[in-house]
Design a protein that fits this description.
By secondary structure, the chain is α+β, with helices and mostly antiparallel strands. The protein has 2 helices and 2 strands, in the order αββα. The N and C termini lie far apart (about 40 Å). It binds zinc ion.
Length: about 90
């Protein structure tokens, strides 16, 4: 164990990610954080993995497929900026 090793981001194993994904869904009440839909829910990275986003509760949000469409990306930006925190 190298405890002092710098960790710029958290990237979980698939098994762990499945668990945290469920915790995010439970935290958000199994509803889309934007429109409140309970259909086609997905756990979305506010900060994408490609942009060093971490697999952490704070970087993950429950959204439905509709709200994840590219035309709704401004909503995600607002979430990412913390301006829509409920
Ligand atoms: Zn939605």
């Amino acid at each position: 164990m190298r405890l002092r090793q710098k960790q710029p981001r958290v990237k979980l194993e698939p098994k762990e990610y499945t668990l945290i994904r469920k915790r995010v869904l439970e935290r958000d009440g199994w509803r889309c954080r934007d429109c409140g839909s309970v259909n086609k829910l997905q756990v979305h990275h506010l900060k994408p993995r490609s942009g060093l986003g971490s697999d952490t509760m704070t970087n993950l949000i429950t959204l439905c497929a509709l709200c994840l469409m590219p035309s709704n990306q401004t909503t995600l930006d607002a979430f990412a900026a913390g301006t829509s925190e409920v």
